[in-house]
Model the fold of this input.
Amino acid sequence: MTPDRQASFGLMCEYTASDSLRRHMLAVETAMKAYAIELGEDQDKWGIVGLLHDFDYEKWPEVPDHPLQGSRILREKGYPEDVIQAILSHVEESGVPRESRLEKALFACDELCGFITAVAYVRPDGIQGMKAKSVRKKMKQKSFAASVSREDIVNGAEEFEVDLNQHIQFVIDALQAEAEMLKLNPASKA
Done:
């Protein structure tokens, strides 16, 4: 059973007040849905995994509470085990290995979406016209978006078995399609 998107969005909003964290989860949802379409997977399920992967973070930011508290809530609400396992697996310290394509996709998209968002915020044109090359250049600048793990971005692409440059461009393209909602256009960044 695929969880309901509207109920999942409500759950995310119930536990997350921060607009920037909500937008991050919406960005990961967008990237996950795009990959699901590309790979012939269940886009609704993949999107829900992206949408809810950090829903517990604001209330329980410390590992292992994040993502364990969230997984408890999702089980109580009847979410499928593969959705819960994917969300658990995106945090190394959870001890849940990433085995399925869904789990690997979430890990590959999570940090990258955060980094692409940060790059878009400093570009005059936002995400419009962004290329993987400019993202890779910013990745070398250690002081830029310092909290984003470059190692996770690289390892995520490797685990997901996608070329890093192609992966970056794929996610950029997916996020560009929802740039207004994600506030990644110059006029909407405020």
